[in-house]
Amino acid sequence: MRGFLILDFGSQYTQVIARRLRDLGFYSEIVSYKIEIDQIKVKNPFGIILSGGPMSVYEAGAPLRDTKQLEKISPILGICYGFQLIVSQNGGVVQSSQHREYGKKIVHWKKPLRGLKKEQSVWMSHGDVATKIPDRFTVLAETDHHPAVIQDQNVLGLQFHPEVFHTEQGEELFLEFAQMCKAEKNWNATQMSQQIHQFVKDQVKADEKVLCALSGGVDSTVVAALLHKILKPGQLQCIFVDTGLLRDQEADEVMKAYKTLNLPVIKADAKDLFLNALKNISDPEKKRKLIGQLFIETFDNEVKKLNQKFHWLAQGTLYPDVIESVSLHGTSVTIKSHHNVGGLPEKMNLKVLEPVRYLFKDEVRSLGQTLGIPESFIQRHPFPGPGLAIRILGEIDLNKIQTLQKADRIYIDFLKEKNLYHKIWQAFCVLLPVQTVGVQGDSRTYDNALVLRAVTSRDGMTADWYEFEMSDLKEVSSRITNQVKGINRVVYDVTSKPPATIEWE
User: What is the rounded CA–CA span in Å between residue 505 and residue 503?
Assistant: First the structure.
């Protein structure tokens, strides 16, 4: 599909650029800045966007790209590092500055683009600045110290980040660039469905069978429902592995949902297997890897019972997972392992089918709605593959699991009761390996501390903590400490992402 091509120079906001464009109705794709020029020509993009990045254009080893060569293919938008790259490669000068610009800044427009304010609040994050603008460019806007927007006939450069939420009228800037490119809107839920339908048809032959591992989450459920609709009866087989690490009563609830969708699904009860294996394991990475290994073993055993020949393994891989698997200069630093069914394709000699690998989370939800998946299921908060194992810090046992399940149920029910659930991207409880002194029923207690977490986000790539009314925090804390034995202290996490991640492990 034709769209915008985003060359990634290592910015933490690159994915947000793609999301903004898709929100505006334009297909967008992220690739490494190293992509071959012939590949770009084949894609025939409406426009090429150069992302920000952590390095300096004059620094040894900096990621460089011939922007003049790119101009011959389509219009270019340079953001932050991309802006500086355009300046430096066209005879301008970029240097480190004493007047560094971070966070909220005001841009003063000399020649405002259509629909923009003369004074615009933007988000900046740069220590280098353009001290000399190439002659071919016009400076359209500047801050109190430096040029902020430059333009030539086929090139637009922004020293700030229009993609982030904090920049006023960021969408208008992307629309201005889209108009420069004469781009046509071509991205919505219907378009997504048609493209994926054709992709599956092209990949899976009529006589081939597909396995789908169901976790109980939105992504794998949408993939299963999609394949069930596209493939012929008998081609698809789903397996749901109950690890015992789901939320309260969740295993039964998801099985009911699967039956409503008429999915061909087998439930594998592996609660005891996972619980026994996780005894005395406290390291979060060891937990994740062990759960992944056990999942593979359980899934493989269930498949052997079927005694059938399968050709494909369907996974609910999303676009952020695809992007994060490849870094700017090689293997990315692992913040935490992603729990998926890695290892199964090789072990079982299967090809991998990833129908939603180019979609973001909310796009998957939109697709799920078109497939008739109940709204109550589609709009559930994200839940990690390893489940409650990474929300119980330290060692795991059945008592801790049940304690956390009870607390989490009270918390989520409270949010729904107060009509807050859908205002929050993700909410959950974390059981700490910390015991604190308390007084309950006139007796001294020495029980666990519980953390409440609630964040707002659009896609989980960045997030801010939700600002509850103090009366709500007081009420939910009281409910939990009164109703859940083993918890005598409740605290609330007020950390954004970054610097923290959403989950604690």
Answer: 6
331 alpha-carbon distance from chain centroid: 19
On the CB side of 339, how many CA atoms lie within 13 Å of its CA? 29
Q: How far is CA 320 from the centre of its chain?
A: 5
Of residues 80, 181, 212, 238, which has the active-site annotation?
80
Residue 484 Cα distances to 82, 112, 477, angstroms: 53, 59, 11
C-alpha to C-alpha distance for 144 and 148, rounded to whole angstroms = 10
Closest to 334 (Cα-Cα) out of 343, 342, 324: 324
| 80 part of the active site | yes
Counting Cβ atoms within 10 Å, is residue 202 exposed (0-12), middle (13-18) or buried (19+)?
Answer: exposed
The answer to whether residue 181 is catalytic is no
Distance, in Å, from the CA atom of 121 to the CA atom of 223, rounded to the nearest integer, reads 41
3-state secondary structure of 392: strand
pLDDT over threshold 60, residue 337: no
Nearest Cα to 133, choosing from 87, 97, 95, 99? Answer: 87
pLDDT digits (tens, 9 = 90+) for 136-169: 999 999 988 789 999 998 999 999 999 987 788 9
Say yes or no to pLDDT of 334 above 50: no
Please name every residue paired with 139 in a beta bridge, in sequence order, or none if there are none. Answer: 150
Catalytic residue, chosen from 161, 212, 238, 429, is 161
396, 397, 398, 399 from 402: Cα distances, Å: 11, 9, 6, 5
Catalytic one of 101, 126, 163, 212? 163
Tell me the three state secondary structure of residue 140.
Answer: strand
For 131, the enclosing helix (H) or strand (E) is strand 119-132
Q: Which long-range contacts (CB under 8 A, 24 or more apart) does 432-439 make?
A: 432/393, 432/394, 433/282, 433/393, 433/394, 433/395, 436/488, 436/489, 437/488, 438/488, 438/489
pTM exceeds 0.90 for this model: no
Give residue 329's pLDDT band: very low, low, confident or very high (50, 70, 90): very low
Q: Over the chain, what is the mean pLDDT?
A: 89
